[in-house]
Amino acid sequence: MPPASAIVNDGNVVYDAHTNDVAPSGTELKSALLHRHLQHEPIRVIGASGNHLHLSNGRRIFDSTGGAAVACLGHGNERVKKAIARQMEEVSYCHTLLFTTPAAEGLAQELVSSTNGAMAKAFIVSSGSEAMEAAMKLARQFYLEAIPPQPRRTRFVARKESYHGNTLGALSMSGHVARRALFEPILMDNVSHVSACNAYRGMSNGETIEEYVARLARELDDEFTRLGPDTVCAFVAEPVVGAALGCVPAVQGYFQAMQDVCRKHGALLVLDEVMSGMGRCGTLHAWEQEGIVPDIQTIGKGLGGGYAPVAGILINHRVVDVLGRGTGAFAHGQTYQGHPVSCAAALEVQRIIREERLVDNVRKMGTLLEHGLKQRLADHPNVGDIRGKGLFWGIEFVRDKATKKPFDPRDAIAMGVHEKGIQSPYNISLYPGTGTVDGRMGDHVLLAPAYNITVTDVALIVKLASQVVEDFFAEQK
Ligand code: PLP
């Protein structure tokens, strides 16, 4: 039987995603799945291998973003597939209240060992948002069980222009104005947001990096003071801001200064490495480049590389010791926590990254990618900034290069660039994003290819991505 047709309404035209034929007018959407858009059925992916997604219309797309910085080994890795199948044969599920599995224990051991003694325990969940929820509850429990207990600590300080997830606690931490907007009245009111560290947009003219860092540290310090320093559980930040800003790393010395402020006020430092961690930025943990160790760290996308839904938190000795001397348990549990199949997938992904020294390749290929993108696009009149680390790069688009004025959100520039990319002849996926820039929406695309890409792949990404950007803006004129 031929596949049922997949009718797509992209706002301009109704077409069949299997055949790309325009459908007769009046045709109704047939999918029973609630996609993000009720009126827009995404293009069907019927296969994936290496760096490519195979579409139902026969085209192959170069996945230069690994989804949302997820597929760190590319698609269809044989070792990971076998590990998953083995785990399915052994134990597909057991509840972690009473039981554990070699897969979950092995993954936790692999993760803790990767921190060279900095972290004491790993806690495994299914998504980055869940990891953020767990981190918030753990921070709160830490202060309840501290000696003496500090029950007044109920607040969190996060940053503007950040994204920590879609569940209500994680969204409350997020400073992403557009993603919060609809839900603002039901978000937690115990989270406040200080400025992000964004050299391109945040540094004043003539300000040095040291002065910028000192200014941001003062802002955090003032916020603790305003809230009452003994009321804050933790300061929460992404080492490299992903979806909300488009791969914006902090300037040198920023995280050390932020940790100093946290220590001064006795608050924990929680780093959200869901997007930027597990090798993506050129070290297994992004904090290794900042000269600090967080108290709690969340991890996600690159942990399982998309082979299974898996995320987690890593917890340092100070926090574990307090709970160990207190109730002896983390008061938080979920049905699919430490899921054996997810853990087996993630463990194999992490072993491959370690054994094949893929983080070294991330650094090498990242340098080439940076060089190629900057050489080709840095002077483009609508490219405001190209920034990132490792294999995590963002290109920010501006209406006016001199004033850094962003595009009108109604122009949907980032989505337009993405849509152009997935068309022939380019056939490349660039991850679109809109953040908030000076109170207005800003546009960027992310590049986050697999850690095992080659020099040839990098050259292809640079060529295709640059061509898409150049052609897209040429057609806007
Ligand atoms: N934290 C960061 C930094 C993220 O980028 C994301 C997702 O994009 C999340 C948390 C939430 O992860 P998930 O979508 O797996 O719930």
UniProtKB/TrEMBL annotation:
InterPro entries: Aminotrans_3, PyrdxlP-dep_Trfase, PyrdxlP-dep_Trfase_major, PyrdxlP-dep_Trfase_small
One Pfam family linked to the record: Aminotran_3
SUPFAM superfamilies: PLP-dependent transferases (SSF53383)
Keywords, in A-Z order: Pyridoxal phosphate
Family: Belongs to the class-III pyridoxal-phosphate-dependent aminotransferase family.
Protein name: Aminotransferase
Native source species: Cryomyces antarcticus
Upper classification of the organism: Eukaryota, Fungi, Dikarya, Ascomycota, Pezizomycotina
